[in-house]
Design goal:
alpha+beta, 60s Ribosomal Protein L30, Chain: A, five-stranded mixed β-sheet, 6 helices, about 10% strand, transmembrane helix, Bact_OuterMem_StrucFunc, transmembrane, membrane
C-alpha cells in the first residue's frame, strides 16, 4: 500500500486565527476606548451639574440667610408693635379710668348743686319765726362769746397767779436750800464735836478706827464669831459710846435734823449649814439692830437711829485672805442728815 507523500500546511490557519484574534483585540480596545470616552463625558457632565448644584445651593443659602435676617427684623418690629400696643392699651385704660373719675366727680358736683339748690330753697322758705329764732341764736352766740372772753381773762389771771406762785415756790426753794445748808453746816460743826468726843471716849483702841466720816468697829470687838448678840467687851465699848452720844445730842438744837446711821458688814465666807441666820446679809442686819437696840436702851432716841445690813457686798478692802476678811467684818457708825 502506498503512503501519500503530500504534507499538510497549517500556517495559513494560524495566520487566520491570529488575524481574527487581533481583530477581536482591536475591537475590544475600540469598545474600551469608546466606553472610556463616553464615561469621561458622563463624568464631565455630572461635574458640571454638581457645580451648578453647588452654585444653586450657595444662592439658596444666601437667600435663606437674608430670609432669617428679615425674619429677625420682622420679629423685632412685632415686639416693638406689641410694646406700643401695650402702651396704647395702658393709656386707653388710664383715660378710661380718668373718664370714670370725671363722671363720678360730675355726679358728685350734680349732687352738690342739687343739695345747694335745695338748701337755698329751704333758706328762701324760712318763715319769719325761724328768722327770729336765728336772731335769738345769734344773740346767744354773742353772749357765749362774752362768757368765753371772761373765761379767757380769768385763765390769764390764773396764769399770772400761777407764775407768781412759781416765783414764790422758787423763792421758798432757795430759802429751804439756804436753811438746809445752814443745818448741814451746823450738823458739820456738831459732827466734829461728835468725832472729837467719841474718839476721846474710846481711846486708842486698834479695833476702832476712823474712816472718812464714820467710826469703824471691828466685829470681833462687839460680837462672837457668827453671832449677833453683843459680848461683854462690846457692851462696854457701846456704853462709852452711848454716854458720849447723849452728851452730843443735848448740844444739837432741835431744828437741826440728824440721825445716827449704823451699818453692818461681813466677810464673804458663807455661814455653816443650819446656822441661825440664812445669809451674811441677815447676820449683818441683825448685828446693826443689836447696836441700835443697845443704844436705845441707854436713852438714845430711836427716831434718831437707822440700821442697815450690807452683808459682804460693800467690802472695805478687796481680797479673801484672813487680814482682808477681818477688816471687812465691821460695824460703821456715822452721824449724818436723814
Amino acid at each position: 500500500m502506498r503512503r501519500s507523500s503530500r504534507t499538510v500546511n497549517v500556517w495559513p490557519g494560524y495566520v487566520d486565527a491570529l488575524s481574527a484574534l487581533l481583530m477581536v483585540v482591536i475591537f475590544v480596545l475600540l469598545i474600551f476606548t469608546l466606553a472610556q470616552f463616553l464615561l469621561r463625558q458622563v463624568v464631565s457632565d455630572q461635574e458640571f451639574a454638581l457645580d451648578l448644584l453647588s452654585n444653586r445651593l450657595a444662592e439658596v443659602s444666601e437667600a435663606l440667610g437674608l430670609s432669617e435676617e428679615r425674619a429677625e427684623a420682622l420679629n423685632a418690629q412685632v415686639t416693638l408693635f406689641s410694646e406700643q400696643l401695650a402702651e396704647v392699651t395702658d393709656e386707653r385704660d388710664s383715660l378710661a379710668a380718668a373718664r370714670d373719675q370725671d363722671q363720678l366727680r360730675l355726679l358728685a358736683l350734680d349732687a352738690l348743686v342739687a343739695s345747694r339748690e335745695e338748701a337755698l330753697a329751704q333758706e328762701q322758705a324760712l318763715s319769719a319765726e325761724q328768722r327770729d329764732q336765728v336772731a335769738l341764736l345769734n344773740l346767744q352766740i354773742a353772749a357765749l362769746r362774752t362768757q368765753l372772753q371772761e373765761v379767757a381773762e380769768a385763765l390769764a389771771a390764773a396764769e399770772r397767779d400761777k407764775a407768781e406762785q412759781a416765783e414764790e415756790i422758787t423763792d421758798l426753794g432757795k430759802r429751804l436750800n439756804l436753811a438746809l445748808a445752814r443745818q448741814v453746816n451746823e450738823l458739820e460743826r456738831y459732827r466734829s464735836e461728835f468725832f472729837g468726843r467719841v474718839k476721846e471716849a474710846l481711846g486708842e483702841n486698834p479695833d476702832v478706827r476712823i474712816t472718812g466720816d464714820r467710826f469703824v468697829f471691828q466685829s470681833e470687838l462687839l460680837f462672837p464669831s457668827g453671832e449677833a448678840a453683843l459680848n461683854p467687851a462690846g457692851r462696854a465699848q457701846l456704853e462709852q459710846l452711848a454716854e458720849t452720844l447723849l452728851e452730843v445730842a443735848e448740844l444739837i438744837p432741835d431744828e437741826v435734823d440728824w440721825v445716827l446711821r449704823i451699818d453692818g458688814h461681813t466677810d464673804p465666807q458663807p455661814l455653816r449649814e443650819g446656822h441661825r441666820y440664812a445669809s451674811n446679809w441677815e447676820l449683818s442686819t441683825a448685828r446693826a439692830l443689836s447696836v441700835v437696840e443697845f443704844l436705845a436702851s441707854r436713852g438714845l432716841a430711836p427716831e434718831r437711829m437707822v440700821a442697815a445690813g450690807f452683808g459682804e457686798h460693800r467690802p472695805a478692802v478687796e481680797g479673801d485672805d484672813a487680814a482682808a476678811n477681818r477688816r471687812n467684818r465691821r460695824i460703821e457708825i456715822k452721824l449724818t442728815s436723814p
